[in-house]
């Protein structure tokens, strides 16, 4: 076995010391790794070629990541960002990305705030003055009451206060006085409740290229000018370093490369359209019966919703997010919308109207009881299935009693019996080894052998599986599995899954 450190994040000041004739870019790692599956050469050799031929590596990335929709290749490239003078509100939108992202913020517990804040560009000159007066008033509360809150914490937590006093008397620096820092931190945390969401923050952030591209695209159409500015700045500092991995962020470059317009309607219109649409639905269908509300268990402000109807949960989540209704009221509106096949279909058509073949479904499609499947798959099928990391996948050991999967092509050339004989002999040795070696006996089995797996998957991720694995370019084995999964899913949630299917059929299905 060989383990090689192929690359790592290093400080930009060190990258700048690399000779001028060398292009330092994480694209070469992505390009090399993208070719592993199709190129017989060893990985280090692929990386060497990519480093030496950066233009070729970039063309390869464009073809594989976007032409073939293998977006996961972009996850091999990582970027680190220092972000300063961003508001707490914009930070919430930035940090909505969950996968391929890491954030470390300057804490409001450990740092005494200086009152710095962002003045929104959207405000008029007059309103900016009024806003500044308000924030000054908010900050004044923080500054005036911080000492009082600190004294309160020391008085209320005598044991910690005593520890802090003893450590101070020993001459230990305040920085190393854990008890003192804890008490002061609690005070700062409480004082900050008066602060505006415009309060400035700063953070270190790391994104892989796929996550970066999504952040740039979605924030480019944000309702906040601050987030639109942030989107542009993220694009500007990375477009020269890794243009091939963030091409969906650049409509002009996308059109030049792929000779087609970039469909950005989902990012432009879905959220704003849903807010208007939900308002209209609430006005039309509001005031439903309490009988339409699912069983809900409450504890103070917390509610556990016991509802498993997929279409109903997704529709209620959409109503809830884009209104100011409680969850009970959202389900009442939903019940009326779904009371007829016609109105239910019209509702979901409106929700999905701006989705393109490259887009994920809105996050509301996660708000439901996950769909639970038991599958019997070949090892070859499982190798692809396991790449869908956002679903829960629980696999049994391989079991020769489940039979084997024989490709149609092997049947077509008359090789079925020969493959069956290969598998039979494999199973014989497996059976001999199993009592002696346990799990290691599975080394004897083939890619044709099968295992049972349990899959727990939300509708949003199941759409992704369908889009990728029901496509014409998908491998036949997992394509058949995905097709049967979707057939079952459509039986229980025909509205939610009306736009599922392979990417190649997307436009036809949408029409």
3D structure, described in words:
With 511 residues, the protein is mostly helical. The chain folds into five domains: 14-77, no CATH class; 79-105 and 200-241, no CATH class; 125-194, no CATH class; 265-365, no CATH class; 371-510, 2-Layer Sandwich (Gyrase A, domain 2), CATH 3.30.1360. 50% of the residues lie in helices and 11% in strands. The strands form three sheets. Strands 1-3-2 form a three-stranded antiparallel sheet. Helix 2 (27-34) crosses helix 4 (54-67), helix 6 (125-156) crosses helix 8 (178-191) and helix 19 packs antiparallel against helix 20. The protein is globular, with a radius of gyration of 28 Å. The two termini are 52 Å apart. The mean pLDDT is 87.
Please give the CATH class of the largest domain. Answer: Alpha Beta
CATH topology grouping of the largest domain: Gyrase A, domain 2
Could you spell the SSE succession in H and E letters? HHHHEHEHHHEHHHHEEHHHEHEHHEHHH
Beta strand %: 5-15%
> Over the alpha carbons, how many angstroms does the gyration radius reach?
28 Å
How do the strands of the widest beta sheet line up side by side?
Answer: 1-3-2
What general form does the structure show?
Answer: globular
Q: How many E-type strands? A: 8
Largest sheet: 3 strands, antiparallel
Unreliable segments (pLDDT under 50, ≥5 consecutive)? Answer: none
Q: How many domains comprise the coordinates?
A: 5
Mean of pLDDT:
87
**Helical run tally:** 21
- The name of the CATH architecture of the largest domain is 2-Layer Sandwich
Structural class: mainly alpha
Helix content: 40-55%
Measure the end-to-end span.
Answer: 52 Å
């Amino acid at each position: 076995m060989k383990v090689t450190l192929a690359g790592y994040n290093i400080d930009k000041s060190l990258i700048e010391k690399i000779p001028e004739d060398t292009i330092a870019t994480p694209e070469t790692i992505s390009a090399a790794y993208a070719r592993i599956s199709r190129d017989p050469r060893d990985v280090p050799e692929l990386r060497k070629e990519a480093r030496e031929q950066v233009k070729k590596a970039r063309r390869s990335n464009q073809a594989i990541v976007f032409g073939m929709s293998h977006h996961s290749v972009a996850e091999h490239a990582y970027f680190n960002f220092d972000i300063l003078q961003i508001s707490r509100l914009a930070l919430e939108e930035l940090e909505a990305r969950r996968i391929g992202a890491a954030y470390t913020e300057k804490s409001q517990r450990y740092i005494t705030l200086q009152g710095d804040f962002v003045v929104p560009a959207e405000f008029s000159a007059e309103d900016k003055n009024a806003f500044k007066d308000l924030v000054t008033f908010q900050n004044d509360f923080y500054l005036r009451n911080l000492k009082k809150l600190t004294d309160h914490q020391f008085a209320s937590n005598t044991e910690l206060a005593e520890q802090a006093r003893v450590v101070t008397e020993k001459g230990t620096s305040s920085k190393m006085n854990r008890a003192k820092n804890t008490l002061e931190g609690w005070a700062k945390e409480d004082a900050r409740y008066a602060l505006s969401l415009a309060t400035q923050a700063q953070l270190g952030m790391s994104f892989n290229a796929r996550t970066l591209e999504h952040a740039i695209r979605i924030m480019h159409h944000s309702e906040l000018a601050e987030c639109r500015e942030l989107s542009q700045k993220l694009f500007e500092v990375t477009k020269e370093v890794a243009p091939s991995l963030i091409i969906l962020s650049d409509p002009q470059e996308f059109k030049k490369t792929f000779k087609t317009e970039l469909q950005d309607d989902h990012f432009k219109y879905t959220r704003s359209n849903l807010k208007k649409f939900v308002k209209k639905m609430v006005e039309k269908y509001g005031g439903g019966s309490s009988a339409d509300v699912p069983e809900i268990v409450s504890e103070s402000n917390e509610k556990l919703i016991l509802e498993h109807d997929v279409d109903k949960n997704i529709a209620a989540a959409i109503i809830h997010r884009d209104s100011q209704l409680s969850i009970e009221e959202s389900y009442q509106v939903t019940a009326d919308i779904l009371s007829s096949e016609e109105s239910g279909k019209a509702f979901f058509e409106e929700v999905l109207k701006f989705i393109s073949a490259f887009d994920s479904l809105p996050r509301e499609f996660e708000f439901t009881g996950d769909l639970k499947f038991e599958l019997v798959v070949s090892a070859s099928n499982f190798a692809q299935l396991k790449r869908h990391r956002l679903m829960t996948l629980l696999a049994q050991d391989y079991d020769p009693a489940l039979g084997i999967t024989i490709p149609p092509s092997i049947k077509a050339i008359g090789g079925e019996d020969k493959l069956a004989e290969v598998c039979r002999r494999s199973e014989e040795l497996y059976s001999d080894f199993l009592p002696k070696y346990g799990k290691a006996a599975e080394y004897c089995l083939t890619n044709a052998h099968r295992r049972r797996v349990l899959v727990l998957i939300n509708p949003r991720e199941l759409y992704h599986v369908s889009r990728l694995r029901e496509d014409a370019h998908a491998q036949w084995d997992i394509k058949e599995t995905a097709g049967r999964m979707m057939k079952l899913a459509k039986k229980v949630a025909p509205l939610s899954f009306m736009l599922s299917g392979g990417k190649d059929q997307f436009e036809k299905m949408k029409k």
